[in-house]
Design a protein that fits this description.
The complex is a heterodimer of chains A (346) and B (377). Chain A is mainly alpha-helical. Chain A is built from 13 helices and no strands. The longest helix of chain A has 38 residues. In chain B, helix 5 runs antiparallel to helix 6. Chain B has 377 residues and is an alpha+beta fold. In chain B, strand 2 and strand 3 form a beta hairpin. Chain B has 16 helices and 8 strands. Chain B has one domain: Cytochrome-c3 Hydrogenase, chain B. Classes of the chains: A mainly alpha (346), B alpha+beta (377). Chains A and B meet through helix 7, helix 10 and helix 13 of A and helix 5, helix 6, helix 8 and helix 15 of B.
Chain lengths: 346, 377
């Protein structure tokens, strides 16, 4: 498991004391400490993604009345994803001839890195958070809007018509759904009276989860729907739309570069679910079990629902998706913000 | 209105280019090796040109170098999802030439085989149509339901897909032990399952907005293009050869011709769902009414139909499948010409997708349910 220790914990101070005893500057220590934390978070997320991919395949198998992976790694195919990842690692590094090489190479990182960055503010428990920024929610909004640039670069640099169509869809969809997503978050911020994630969690103390407070159910639904669109899952998987665009923006990617997109997608899924839990479902708070366990249980529950939806419904068309965002979600979001504000005043 | 003017100004100044997108022949949704040359303006289709021939095997030409019974297995490979209807169209033409009378039991057996084939084919349609709209789960459900039919074929004919069981003068063999029981069991189960899948698809709002009022085929246009089968019946034209020109024992059976007046993808989907239910009824009636007797007529040792020409037509799951045979009295046909319903249905595709979006092309193409094997021949 993780050992994401906040900078104010005992270990930090103990090691810092030893460091300062040798007369070394604090900022170097902080940089090393941050790098270490980042490595731990990254490792944890990668591990989670491995589990998620396996889980998704098992669940889809279950829904489709088949078995799913059952050979690699025992009866339940536990090592299937590891084997797949190894295969991708060993693939030839392929860049299409007409591609814009530089953009093609950096695009997957631009998608992957922001998705990792946002985990910085996720409180896995009362103490396990990398940094509880005082503008945490704003940070999430800012950073999670970033990957779309990477997606667009990937589609553009591939020099492929399917890829560029996928990239256009990704840009249009992500930008449209960002707005209701932010509106849903604004409702929570208004209700909690703070942009700091720690205080949003504190405001839900004692079982007063935000999802139970009156107008916030609307925000919760709004968040849930837009989150699915943000992670490009059916019914909102237009940018990838296998049956239309083959694979969309990453059609030309293979090997490790493709794996980065794949990782980013599942890491993003993990993030939106974790953030959903943080904003609406009382974060790590719960009786008897340890906070981290509670947090993970809730997050996996949210992810299960998202997977369940994915394997049940068909896909919408691009104009229907855009219409849904602009004609329904945004007005509802505005109304929800207004309502939450009014309830706060009353 | 200065703002509006500015808008139209920028629109005029921003040059847009039409893009030609090659969809296929390797594409997950072109149902084989079809190539569509789409002319796009953004996501909107302004032109669509189907390009066929990637699966051409020269089957019509091959026929001229085979004896009459030898050619039969080739017809399996035309519409490979319902080989029995291809077999029958060819066999009908040859039987007409020879003036053969088929034993009654064989006629019933043929109908059972045809209708099982129809259900199997329509189940593949439901599966792939749903898959094209990203309802991946229904894809597997459809194929799972099809499995018992393939098992029945295997039990009866030894083959699952390319049965070649309909022969000149009858069928190759009678029903095996235990077939009837299994077939009845399947007939009981299928309607319930269809109900479930219909709820999963047609009961879903997303599925409805993706199929309703999409890909309109007006009835007169459909007739002009020579469309047939569920594609035409989905436009409200009650044309079904099983009724219009009954062959085998269809004239004696009680079943309804499914039509939908909506002319859209949903209409074509509903027609096929209803046809499966009707097929179940037909199979059950056949099992009840079937007399005992021979299954193959007495045939001369070498099949040499007298000089002449004949046309056999069958309502395949895709429409009118026709086979025109010319004989000069020798053991090999002079000319065999095949009328593949998918070919004509595909011809209407450009009309149906004009002005719609890429996602709709996939939906419409899925809804006319083509098989490239019979188009390219």
């Amino acid at each position: 498991m993780t050992a994401i220790a906040a900078p104010h914990t005992g270990i930090y101070h103990a090691v810092l004391g030893w460091w300062q005893g040798h007369g070394l500057p604090v900022w170097i220590f902080d940089a090393i400490w941050m790098a270490l934390m980042a490595a731990i978070v990254t490792a944890f997320i990668l591990l989670t993604v491995l589990i998620l991919v396996w889980l998704e395949r098992k669940i889809s198998g279950d829904i489709q009345s088949r078995v799913g992976p059952n050979r690699t790694g025992g009866r339940f195919g536990l090592l299937q994803t590891v084997a797949d990842a190894l295969k991708l690692l060993m693939k030839e590094d392929l860049i299409p001839r007409g591609a814009d090489r530089l953009v093609f190479i950096i695009a997957p990182f631009l998608v992957f890195v922001p998705v990792l960055l946002v985990f910085m503010i996720i409180p896995f428990s009362d103490r396990w958070v990398v940094k509880d920024l005082n503008l945490g929610v704003l940070f999430v909004v800012a950073v999670s809007a970033f990957p779309v640039i990477g997606l667009f670069m990937a589609g553009w640099a591939s020099n492929n018509k399917y890829a560029i169509l996928g990239a256009m869809r990704a840009a249009a969809q992500t930008l449209s759904y960002e707005i209701p997503l932010v509106l849903a978050m604004v409702c929570v911020v208004v209700a909690a009276g703070s942009l700091r994630v720690g205080e949003i969690v504190a405001a839900q103390r004692g079982g007063h989860w935000f999802v139970l407070r009156f107008p916030l159910q609307i925000a919760f639904l709004l968040y849930f729907i837009t989150a699915m669109a943000e992670v490009n899952r059916v019914p909102f998987d237009l940018p990838e739309a296998e049956s239309e665009l083959v694979a969309g923006y990453h059609v030309e990617y293979s090997g490790m570069r493709f794996a980065l997109f794949f990782l980013a997608e599942f890491a993003h899924l993990f993030f939106v679910s974790a953030f959903c839990v943080t904003l609406f479902l009382g974060a790590w708070q719960g009786p008897w079990l340890s906070p981290v366990l509670w947090f993970l249980i809730k997050t996996y529950a949210v992810m299960l629902v998202i997977m369940w939806v994915r394997w049940t419904v068909p896909r919408l068309r691009i104009d229907q998706i855009m219409g849904f965002a602009w004609k329904l979600l945004i007005p509802v979001g505005l109304a929800a913000v207004l309502l939450t504000g009014m309830m706060n005043v009353l | 209105m200065p703002a509006l003017q500015a808008n139209s100004m920028t629109a005029a100044l921003t040059p847009t280019e039409q893009v030609i997108l090659n969809m296929g022949p390797q594409h997950p949704s072109t149902h084989g090796v079809l190539r569509l040359e789409l002319t796009l303006e953004g996501e909107v289709i302004v032109g669509c040109q189907p390009v066929i021939g990637y699966l051409h095997r020269g089957i019509e030409k091959i026929a001229e170098n085979r004896t009459y019974p030898q050619f039969l297995p080739y017809t399996d490979r035309l519409d490979y999802l319902s080989s029995a209807s291809n077999n029958l169209a060819y066999v009908q033409a040859v039987e007409k030439l020879m003036g053969l009378e088929v034993p009654e039991r064989a006629q019933y057996l043929r109908v059972i085989l045809l209708e099982l084939n129809r259900i199997a084919s329509h189940l593949v349609f439901v599966a792939t149509f749903a898959n094209d709209l990203a309802a991946t789960t229904v894809f597997l459900y459809g194929f799972r339901e099809r499995e018992p039919i393939e098992d029945l074929f295997e039990l009866w004919t030894g083959a699952r897909l390319t049965q070649s069981w309909i022969r000149i003068g009858g069928v190759a063999g009678d029903l095996p032990e235990g077939f009837e029981e299994k077939a009845r069991q399947f007939c009981r189960l299928l309607p319930q399952r269809l109900e479930e899948y219909d709820r999963l698809l047609a009961g879903n709002r997303i599925f409805r907005v993706r199929t309703e009022r999409i890909g309109i085929l007006p009835p007169e246009v459909g007739i002009d293009y020579g469309c047939s089968g569920p594609t035409l019946r989905g436009s409200g034209v009650p044309f079904d050869l099983r009724r219009a020109e009954p062959y085998e024992v269809y004239g004696r059976l009680d079943f309804a011709i499914a039509t939908e007046p909506t002319c859209d993808c949903m209409g074509r989907y509903r027609v096929r769902m209803e046809e499966m239910r009707q097929s179940v009824r037909i199979i059950e009636q056949c099992l009840d009414l079937m007399p005992q007797g021979e299954v193959l007529a007495k045939l001369p040792r070498a099949i040499r139909p007298p000089e002449g020409e004949a046309y056999g037509r069958v309502e395949s799951p895709r429409g009118e499948f026709g086979c025109y045979v010319v004989s000069d009295g020798s053991a090999q046909p002079v000319r065999v010409r095949l009328r593949a319903p998918s070919f004509y249905n595909l011809a209407a595709l450009p009309r149906m997708v004009q002005g719609w979006k890429i996602g709709d092309v996939v939906a419409v193409l899925g809804s006319i349910d083509i098989v490239l094997g019979e188009i390219d021949r």
